[in-house]
Design a protein that fits this description.
alpha+beta, Phenylalanyl-tRNA Synthetase, Chain B, domain 1
Length: 98
């Protein structure tokens, strides 16, 4: 088993616009994304230059019945809250316009 030390866990629920803060969303509503997947997070992290890995089979504790998996990212010492906002902006920038 690899050490998770430099990696930080990012769940799709952190970015979900349909969730409230108490249900797991961690970013402001203006940065939240309607339909988010772990692959969106993974691609955005790699575009921003982070080392990222998808981890299948993990459930977010607040919604354990969901099984989207999670993404672990080497944030290179940056604060998780800053990386969350950067990822959300990158995902929104590359989503197709409605």
């Amino acid at each position: 088993m690899r050490s998770r030390k430099p990696f930080t866990i990012f769940w799709p629920q952190y970015f979900d616009a349909k969730r409230s803060r108490s249900k797991g969303r961690r970013i402001p509503k203006k940065f939240a994304i309607e339909k988010i997947t772990t692959s969106d997070i993974l691609k955005a992290a790699k575009r921003l230059g982070y080392e990222a890995h998808f981890e299948k089979g993990y459930q977010y504790p607040r919604t354990w019945w969901d099984d989207p998996g999670r993404v672990s990212i080497d944030t290179k010492g940056k604060k998780k809250s800053k990386v969350l906002i950067d990822l959300a902006k990158e995902i929104k920038k590359n989503q197709p316009k409605k």
